[in-house]
């Protein structure tokens, strides 16, 4: 599945992502890059709404889990976040992007092994929202995946 197909899936199954104008921009090196339009995700102080920022990092982590699950050949899965920690470091003041670190090969191998033996596994995902090279939001979440 390519990123545009996954974006369409998000818009259909999680309508909020379409309203927020979340985009799955690209995969580069070991990261999934996503973004959202500031104009749809600002608060009364004209800065990024914390709920929108949290949604973007959470959805981006979910997408990274989904892409890895599909890559392993599991077309049907249930992915849910079970724990997360979000730190807001600085205000976001314009269109913003999220960089989600993809699992290492070692992490994927363990993930695959658990899915094969238990039909369930988890991935720890890390994301950050960046504006002008500055980290504004740091996120870490644990996602459970059942096949």
List keywords for this structure.
6 strands, Thiol Ester Dehydrase, Chain A, alpha+beta, 6-stranded antiparallel sheet, 147 residues
Concise overview:
InterPro entries: HotDog_dom_sf, YiiD_C. The protein is α+β, with helices and mostly antiparallel strands and 147 residues long. It has helices spanning 3-13, 15-19, 50-71, 105-118, and strands at 23-28, 31-36, 78-88, 96-101, 120-131, 134-146.
Tell me what you see in this structure.
The chain has 4 helices and 6 strands; from the N terminus they run ααββαββαββ. The chain has about 150 residues and is α+β, with helices and mostly antiparallel strands. It has a single domain (about 5-145), classed as Hotdog Thioesterase (Thiol Ester Dehydrase, Chain A, Roll). It has a 6-stranded antiparallel β-sheet with strand order 1-2-4-5-6-3. β5 and β6 form a beta hairpin. The longest helix has 22 residues, at about 50-70. The chain is globular and about 50 Å long. About 25% of the residues are buried.
Topology:
Elements: H1 3-13, H2 15-19, E1 23-28, E2 31-36, H3 50-71, E3 78-88, E4 96-101, H4 105-118, E5 120-131, E6 134-146
Antiparallel strand pairs: 1-2, 2-4, 3-6, 4-5, 5-6
- Fold-level CATH name: Thiol Ester Dehydrase, Chain A
* Total domains: 1
CATH architecture: Roll
Largest sheet, in brief, is: 6 strands, antiparallel
> Which radius of gyration do the C-alpha atoms yield?
15 Å
Shape: globular
The CATH class is: Alpha Beta
